[in-house]
Amino acid sequence: MTLAATIERTREVLATTPAAGKATFSADLDLVGTTQVDVRVRGHRFAADEPESLGGTDVAANPVEYVLGALGACHAITYRVWSEHLGIGFDDISIRVEGDLDVRGFFGVDDAVRPGCSEIRVSTTIRGSEPDERYDELHKLVEEHCPVQDMLAGNVALAAEMTVVR
Question: CATH number of the domain at 62-166, please?
Answer without folding.
Answer: 3.30.300.20
